[in-house]
Design brief:
about 230 residues; mainly alpha
Length: about 230
Amino acid sequence: MSGLLGVYTPPLGLVLSDVARSLPLALWVLFVVHVLSRWSYEWAAARWGRGVGVYFARKVIHMAAGGLVALLVPFVFQEPLVPALLGVALAAYVYLPHRTGRLYDWFQDPSNISEVYYCLAWAVAVLAAWPFNVWLAVYPLFLMSFGDGVTGIIRGIRQRRRVKSWDGSIGFFAVSAPVGYLLFGAVGALVAAVATLLEKAGVVDDNISVPLASLALLLAAHAAGLIPA
């Protein structure tokens, strides 16, 4: 218990060091949200219409912001509080336009706040997994970032609309399973399969169900000794 408490109460110097380390990543995320995603929206909208453009922009943010930063977390940060707070801060940043009605209309949809759920799930995953193995958080975030990102691009091009079609699900699994196997063996591939089915089912917003259910499975496998510490 004392060890766990120490994880969540790091020395102030460590936190301040991580704040400094986080600044380039925060600037990168803002660049992705306001520039790169907008370029991708304009490119896709010109070819397949506004709906596909918005879909593309969202997936670019998933991969280039959430996904890339998640992959860097084990190498950049020394404690979990700063990366988790960054996730919460971004959740607030993308929620505010929904409250004010001044949406970033190249990627935000007034009918849902999925991007807010994604940011919060990102933060929860980092906090929950850090005491055990931070890669237990990185892989679920990879699933929701790159697996779901590829899924959306496939469906956007082939279906020209937001739909839970099997071609996208095949893309999700094809991207996710090899990485899961590389990190966690058969358990990782199994988690990829479960995440694929959860994303396809869409019973609960996949920005919540995919990362958190995948994290829960990995934590259970870790506790059972099925994957290394």
